[in-house]
């Protein structure tokens, strides 16, 4: 008997999820992620890159199948997925799976929303498709996680696992909604593997292309499913084969058991971390440590020096080059700056502790903030390195002008299983993202529509509710 291929195993799992029912905690988690992504898409509408991708999409023309969040008109489903994926990832506010260190919902949810709207699927079908796509995405990411080094092999190769694995997760979600059978879902995996891409250098030295990654992954997933409907096929050993996905991206270094062990029984989805702050996830505990120091009684104006201890692999993202991290020139650079994060915690942030307002351009040059950043160093901390990447811990040490030493340790992230956000906190995040862009009636309607997805509320009606105010 021929051994089952990895893509066949994943396709069988996705087909089973479609038949349902989903475990209660999985369904609730997916529902919350849909609301989270819709809020992120609305909140990102103010960005220049959002305008750019929406203008690009509208220039393409084509059949009206699905909505870009905030737009009245429909566009082709793959292009709606492209735009919404860009919006979902652009604020660096989207969820994170650990220890794979990828952001699954920003590609999978936009792909599923576009496909669901195109075929007029109901809410239950949407939730099942998103659940399967997310699970596939993070399991592929975990297959590229090296337990010996506690790091992602994708990341070490300069590859953005978020978009690379996200393309395949998106294809699974879209293929499920388009009604493809197990063989068809496997072919969608095989086709989308040739569309996977993403280079992560923008994290270090700038550029806005990273915002495009999840959009491109969502576009690839929807396109792959559509192409399979029209007759394209993929190789059965596309993942594990001699010239397959893992050979191409990871030189054959991968863990197949991470893909198949417990598949369909043990779900990773409920453990994906929500982000409480709109910044690179590595900086979140730095914000919290700064706040903890303030709560200890530390006066930010008396700080003489700051040492931000983080896991060794994190230093290059939030602490190098240190000159740029101490003086970010754009909100995007601030989102990847350890010194900026600690300044938010020390000076006090808004929202759940840090919100979009705290990364506004006018905040970057505030004298108190600039002074704090100028005296901050980012170093590798042994305790943090031992925990990473199961959490993104931080230890911040401060010296004040009177010679006193202050220390705050935050070893577990908010938003994960050890310190989850409440339903009300997630709604507060959604409302903060929607503020000034959706009116209050629309905000309530979207929240109610998402809550009713398990009862079959139609996704196409949900997307229509997100139209941005004309005066926004």
Automatic annotation (TrEMBL):
Residues 9-252 form the MmgE/PrpD N-terminal domain. InterPro entries: MmgE/PrpD_sf, MmgE/PrpD_sf_1, MmgE/PrpD_sf_2, MmgE_PrpD, MmgE_PrpD_C, MmgE_PrpD_N. It comes from the Bacteria. It holds the Pfam family MmgE_PrpD_N. Residues 277-449 form the MmgE/PrpD C-terminal domain. Belongs to the PrpD family. This is 2-methylcitrate dehydratase PrpD. It comes from Saccharothrix longispora. The lineage of its organism: Bacteria, Bacillati, Actinomycetota, Actinomycetes, Pseudonocardiales.
């Amino acid at each position: 008997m021929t051994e089952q291929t990895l893509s066949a195993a994943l396709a069988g799992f996705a087909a089973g999820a479609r038949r349902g029912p989903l475990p209660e905690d999985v369904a609730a988690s997916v529902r919350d992620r849909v609301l989270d992504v819709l809020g992120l898409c609305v909140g990102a509408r103010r960005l220049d890159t959002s305008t750019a991708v929406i203008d690009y999409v509208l220039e393409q023309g084509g059949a009206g199948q699905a909505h870009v969040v905030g737009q009245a008109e429909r566009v082709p489903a793959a292009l709606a997925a492209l735009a919404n994926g860009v919006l979902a990832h652009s604020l660096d506010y989207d969820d994170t799976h650990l220890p794979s260190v990828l952001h699954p919902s920003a590609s999978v949810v936009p792909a599923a929303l576009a496909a669901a709207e195109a075929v007029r699927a109901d809410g239950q079908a949407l939730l099942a498709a998103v659940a399967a796509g997310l699970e596939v995405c993070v399991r592929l990411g975990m297959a590229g996680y090296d337990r010996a080094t506690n790091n992602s092999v994708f990341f070490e190769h300069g590859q953005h696992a978020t978009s690379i694995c996200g393309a395949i997760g998106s294809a699974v979600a879209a293929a499920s909604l388009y009604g493809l059978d197990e063989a068809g879902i496997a072919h969608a995996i095989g086709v989308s593997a040739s569309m996977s891409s993403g280079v992560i250098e923008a994290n270090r030295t700038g550029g806005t292309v990273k915002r495009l990654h999840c959009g491109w992954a969502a576009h690839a997933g929807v396109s792959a499913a559509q192409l399979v409907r029209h007759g394209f096929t993929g190789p059965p050993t596309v993942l594990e084969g001699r010239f397959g996905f893992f050979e191409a991206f990871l030189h054959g270094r991968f863990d197949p058991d991470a893909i198949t062990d417990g598949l369909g029984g043990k779900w990773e989805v409920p453990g994906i971390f929500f982000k409480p702050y709109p910044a690179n996830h590595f900086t979140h505990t730095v914000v919290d440590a700064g706040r903890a120091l303030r709560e200890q009684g530390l006066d930010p104006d008396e700080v003489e020096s700051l040492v931000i201890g983080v896991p060794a692999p994190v230093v290059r993202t939030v602490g190098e080059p240190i000159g740029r991290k101490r003086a970010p020139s754009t909100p995007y650079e601030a989102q990847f700056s350890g010194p900026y994060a600690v300044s938010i915690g020390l000076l006090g942030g808004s929202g759940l502790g840090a919100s979009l307002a705290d990364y506004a351009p006018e905040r970057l040059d505030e004298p108190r903030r600039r002074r704090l950043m100028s005296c901050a160093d980012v170093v590798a901390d042994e305790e943090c390195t031992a925990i990473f990447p199961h959490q993104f811990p931080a230890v911040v040490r401060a010296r004040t002008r009177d010679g006193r030493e202050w220390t705050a340790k935050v070893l577990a992230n908010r938003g994960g299983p050890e310190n989850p956000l409440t339903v009300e906190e997630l709604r507060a995040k959604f409302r903060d993202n929607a503020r000034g862009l959706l009116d209050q009636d629309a905000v309530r309607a979207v929240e109610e529509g998402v809550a009713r997805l398990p009862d079959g509320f139609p996704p196409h009606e949900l997307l229509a509710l997100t139209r941005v105010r004309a005066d926004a």
